[in-house]
Structures
1.
Amino acid sequence: NDAGTYYANIYSSNTLALVKRQVPLFSDDEQKIQSSTIQAGDKFGTSVFIDGNYAIVGTKDSTGNAPKGAAYIYKRNTTTGVWGDEQKIEASDKQAGDNFGDSVSISGNYAIMGAWCEDTGGSGAGSIYIYKRNVSTGEWGDEQKIQSNDIQPGDLFGNNVSISGDYGISR
């Protein structure tokens, strides 16, 4: 089963390393993070990123056999240090083969996900999706889909994404 069981090594420097479990290793610093809706073949942990008390985990096949993809955002409880409050995010226009969540990043109240095979601009043109956290409710929403100004089939825009503050970048 390659559903993807990963363990988060949480260090005082607020870094998170997701390591696929080969041999059960446990210490005081480890916490198992797994999607609540995981299925065989999901490849949970395709991409990961952490910023402060938020971690984002991409999964390639979260919506069944065709790789539509999704991302899961987790929040660390600052009192207990436990990661929880999972929220699953999927593109509102998800289609089979989009590979949404193959690349993810998070910064402050913004998260970015790539869908490098999304084909609105032609086969494999690609898109990125930016989500904003509502500071009142804590929910992530307000999806904004972005494509390159000169999008062409096969560009694979969204293959790599990163966000820092108010700026996002994609390849």
Note: Residues 122 and 153 are 4 Å apart (CA to CA).
2.
Amino acid sequence: ILAEAAGDAAGDPAFARRVLAAATEAAWLASDAEAAAALRSLGEGLAPPADEVDRFFADLVQGFLAFAAGDLRRGFPALSSAIQRAERLGRPELLTMVTYHASYIGDDGETARLASARVAAARSAGAALELLFALPPLALAEIVGGRWGAAAGSAGEALRLARETGQPELS
């Protein structure tokens, strides 16, 4: 479905690249080499990134396609670049995304730092859904850091929020 959407959006390279970022991440997480190959060809036909946000998504596409091909030498720097770019841009939705990406590349300290900042920002803004997406990587970072009580609290809060916001599939 995402590959189809990316193909349909080829007239808008920035939007197509956003869809491709989600699709390539899904293909990598599902170990779907066939889907990754199809997505690679879609991405090759796009115009170069037009701005820094578009470059962010291009880095994600490059990183996830490299991971899907087993090429960690290219994948890690591409995702690291996306994380750094998101921090420079300071856009909350990009920062929430890269919190997960930091955990993908095994940067536990960065995951904890980003997740803590996203949780604090969501709480400050009263943004329950943003908080719902920021809590799981925080719980993961707390587990990795041996902070079991904090992890149970973060995970429990995420479960409660998922139920209370009508998002049981996220619990």
Note: The chain is about 80% helix and 0% strand.
3.
Amino acid sequence: DLWIYDPASNTWSQGASGRSARSRVAEAWDPTRGAMLIFGGWNNSVPGMNELWAYMPGSDQWVSLLPSTSDVPAERAVAAATWDTVNSQMLMYGGINRPGQLPGSYKSDLWSAKWDAGLITSSVSLEIIDSQGNPVSALTLNEDGWPTPNPITVKATLNCPAGGPDCENPF
């Protein structure tokens, strides 16, 4: 359920439905488009989802944001998200998939999503890997203040459609 609070009248009203029920989503507010973005989450039958939705309060409707690239974040819930105002994109880090199944359920990757007209136009994924090329799910600091495992590498991947505007000069 989506509930909307109006502080002027101190009342709640129910907003539009349209996506499957879920909890523990990653969310960010896009101030340019006046939309709430949510990614992933859990429900009773699906341990992790990888859908991105935008809720438009002005029209009280949900819009599914379909990726224009085939590379999208893996299913997850409890990820951290924020809106990057400089680059007009949602940033999402970490999260958990397969709750209650360790090891391997924690995510340590960073994703960004730019969207326009209902499509994700580009994404960046960052992955932390150890010296053998294995994904690292958590870093700790040793007594000298260095991360372990050490050394580590951060692998960045830019994903966008051929000739996409965000890919001409990405960095």
Note: Confidence is low (pLDDT under 50) at residues 164-171.
